Protein 1
Amino acid sequence: MRVAVIGSGSWGSAFARLLARRGHDVEVLALTREEAAQLQATRENPHFLPGVRLPQEIRFTGMEDADLAPAELIVYAVPTQAVREVARWVAPRRSGGALQLSLAKGYEIGSLKRPTQVIEEETGAGAAALSGPNHAEEVSKDMPSATVVACTDEAVAVELQSQITSDTFRVYTNDDVVGVEFCGAVKNPIAVAVGMSDGLGFGDNSRASLITRSVAEMTRLGMIQGAHIATFTGLAGIGDLIATCTSRHSRNRLAGELLARGASPAEVERQVGQVVEGLHTAVALHDLATRLDIEMPVTENVYQVLAGNRTPQECVAVLMGRTPKKERHDGV
Ligand SMILES: NC(=O)c1ccc[n+]([C@@H]2O[C@H](COP(=O)([O-])OP(=O)(O)OC[C@H]3O[C@@H](n4cnc5c(N)ncnc54)[C@H](O)[C@@H]3O)[C@@H](O)[C@H]2O)c1
């Protein structure tokens, strides 16, 4: 299959490598011609994916030189807030039958739309979403993991499953696109909250309590959005939540630690040097939850820290001081 992977960051590089290993004809489209030339010459991506050799078969091209017409699959491996711009660029260049796959995890600020909704709006064609516990650092070292490809068109999901599955990357299909994209987005601000807890010096009990209560608020908002409850216990739900909240690779968790040590959100993204989706998704989720009048205590506290209204320490007092509740996990 001829594949164009747009975005030469961490996940774009790792995913391109995965597809090249599967025997696909892969071209990675980098933001600039200079970046593409560097990747083409060195076969390494030291800023985004250090220590990984990128196979000789992958071609790297700057977006200004790219020809999308031969691509049978177009992969969006860019930050959520860049998806609209990229899809707008793709629209007049793609051939009619090309499949589209989003790897982005987040909600567009302002429109509060999911990446596949944005892609469909801009290109006039549907897109599938891939999501799961898949840190690029591990996938690129062929450590086994599983993922979900979600698409409303089951035939497309099955086709992508068969094209992507490998001996180290097991793909499941799912028809709950809303739930898969929702879970992929919401776990990032939650990982920021967990990172804050770690950064404040708290331990395993605090982390587990935060993660578990986050599942309750995730379910609450997700069900109203139309997500299927089973998705929350799947790979894109609890699977990705565990990976993101507990991993040393998680830049969202790291961002929380840095915030707890007093860094500003801008300093955090500068220090991490890559997109930290949770910082943007927290803003979108604050707007979404406010609009729908849904209580999201963990996510809301992350938003208040980012907005400069509360310190992480003050969030602890707010969360622990909430009125006593009955524990329920049925989306209420
Ligand atoms: N890194 C992971 O392990 C991982 C795993 C699963 C999903 N994701 C998701 O994939 C998406 C991308 O993440 P990443 O880790 O690769 O980010 P990254 O910061 O490592 O790389 C982002 C890439 O997108 C490019 N880019 C930014 N704006 C662009 C634009 N307007 N046009 C073209 N290219 C543009 C950047 O140049 C960079 O190459 C995010 O939504 C993330 O949540 C990441």
Protein 2
Amino acid sequence: MDYEKIQFKAGLEIHQQLETHKLFCNCPSELKDEPHEILIKRRLRAVPGEEGEVDVAAEYESLKNKEFIYEGYKDSSCLVEFDEEPPHNINQDALDIVLQICKMLNCKIVDEIQVMRKIVVDGSNTSGFQRTMLVGYDGKLETSKGIVKVDSVCLEEDSARKIAKNDNSIIYRLDRLGIPLIEIGTKPDIKNPEHCKETAELIGMILRSTGKVKRGLGTIRQDVNVSIKNGARVEIKGFQDLRNMPKIIEYEIERQLKEIVKQEVRKANSDGTTSFLRPIPGAGRMYPETDVKPIIIDNKRLDKIKLPELIDEKILRYEKQGLSSELARSFVKSGFELEDYDYKLDKTLIASVLVEVPKDLKARYNIEYEFKEKDYRFVLDALEKDKISKSAVTEIMLEIAQDKKIELNKFEKVNENKLEEEIKKIVHENKNLSDGALMGIIMKRFKNTADGKLIASILAKYKNG
Ligand SMILES: [Zn+2]
């Protein structure tokens, strides 16, 4: 497909939950599986006159007979979620995270933040609107296909979580309502479906580099706006997995080439196709939130916000210290910092004790054990003092995980001279055996007490002698 020729245009909108308490109250930002403790029922009240837009009104008409049921918790939903108390002061930590991300995206930052209400009529918000505020604009991302400009960065509240729905009512849970969300929108500078995935991955990497965003399913949502020559803008929502993103966009483009396309919101399906979700809501459904004072952002505040090291830079730095690309990646993902482990040991050995061996134990023995800092230190100290060979690490950590009393004596590293003597003897006693068979016998004998490489190099000296 010649994407330039069909005048392919795409922009991304990314929503990511921040790892802090809620935006306008102190309730925790945690989704709960347990049964709810509070339940209230509401019908949509008459909306105030400011709302204006026809499409919103139309949607309101279609929903006004529905009953909305909200489930909450005593310890994690307060009167703010129920819209029975005005919003508290804005969560400053959430705002600082967004300011930091704005800096990372090279955005201009507004000097005064005005919180706005965006009308939401589907009941996913108890107040009938979502609070949102513009923080940054005019940023840029450097990608392999050139600059992708960042249009806007907003801080907003997440909506309530839809639990169930029937003809008469919709049940929402309030645990998600009010979780701080950053919304990043790019300009339609994306060149093709693969480039869209690359840009989404880049934004995801930048967000994770702060260490202050939520992780896991549903904590980040990507929407893609896509159009071709003479076509309408179509928004695709609900990408489950970035790997499928190019395929879904390719299918959508094929559809747009075949059909006359209306401006609408479509849902990304798991088979790569998209299906109609709803019309694109009109603009101008926003008005100022008068319960929250404008927030001045001065240089003093901005100067205090430092840029974190990007995950990609950190991976490169660890690669330079000798870690393989794969190990560097999983090490960074694990959240450990190599600098915290001040040993003279080989960096790859340190990283594998911390990350690889626990993963290996899980895969091989199905052991789900959360190693503690002292466990890692116990193993690393023994290695550093040359008490054990690195071949003993897995066995020792297995015993720790099985809560066994570790007797380091049994893993004591064989002295190199002694090892050489023993190997010489074994070779002498087994003159008829092949090199492979000899290696097998020796490895078995020194399984946890000598390094395989050392054994192989000594054996190479004596095997034909
Ligand atoms: Zn609350």
